[in-house]
């Protein structure tokens, strides 16, 4: 197995620090003497578990030159961050978390404006803070659902006479260094989105009822 370029190796090493950052954010949210446990804590715990599992898998996929699966995994990582962030769009986050924990699909629930929390809706809302999200998300959907993208990954070349050369392999050596860096960097940016909402929730948990009510008033104006 050939080695990746130094820039890719360095980016991969950063994934481990992202894992530690996620765990630290979760611990800050969950810890404290007599800290109460709310439904959103459980939802956050599931999100962090899925995220750090994905970090471990992404490292292995890149090291084994498996771009097709790496892009599919990036799409699911984005799904984790977006769907956890949906709790900030509803009237009652803990009620939302309770419904999700009970098995209610997030895309069947509605935000404060009465809009269903579909993946498209979440991408639209978060795109103002993350302009890269819509294009990356749309492209990655082709990798999650079997599509022409998988044929393109198998195609080696098309000759002038129309003949097609295929290579069926679990490795993707033809992708340039920039493509590997892009998938890692988007993955890391997605981890940062999840960390942001974990930090926000940790701060909210420490507010007094009066402070929380005051914050809600400002948010609604």
Topology:
Blueprint: H1 6-30, H2 39-63, H3 67-85, H4 93-101, H5 119-126, H6 133-144, H7 148-154, E1 155-158, E2 164-166, H8 177-205, H9 209-220
Antiparallel strand pairs: 1-2
Helix pairs in contact: 1-2, 1-8, 2-3, 2-4, 2-8, 3-5, 3-6, 3-8
Kindly describe this structure:
- The structure is a single chain.
- With 221 residues, the protein is mainly alpha-helical.
- It has one domain.
- Helices cover 66% and strands 3% of the residues.
- It has nine helices and two strands.
- It has helices at residues 6-30, 39-63, 67-85, 93-101, 119-126, 133-144, 148-154, 177-205, 209-220, and strands at 155-158, 164-166.
- A two-stranded antiparallel sheet has the order 1-2.
- A hairpin with a 5-residue loop joins β1 and β2.
- α2 runs antiparallel to α3 and α3 crosses α5 (119-126).
- The radius of gyration is 20 Å and the shape is elongated.
- The chain starts with 5 loop residues before the first helix and ends with a helix.
- The model has no long low-confidence stretch (mean pLDDT 87).
Strand content: under 5%
Number of strand elements: 2
Written as H for each helix and E for each strand, in order along the chain, the element string is: HHHHHHHEEHH
Oligomer state equals single chain
* Gap between N and C termini: 57 Å
Number of helices: 9
Number of folding domains? Answer: 1
Name the helicity range.
55-70%
Q: In a few lines, what is going on in this structure?
A:
The protein has 221 residues and is mainly α.
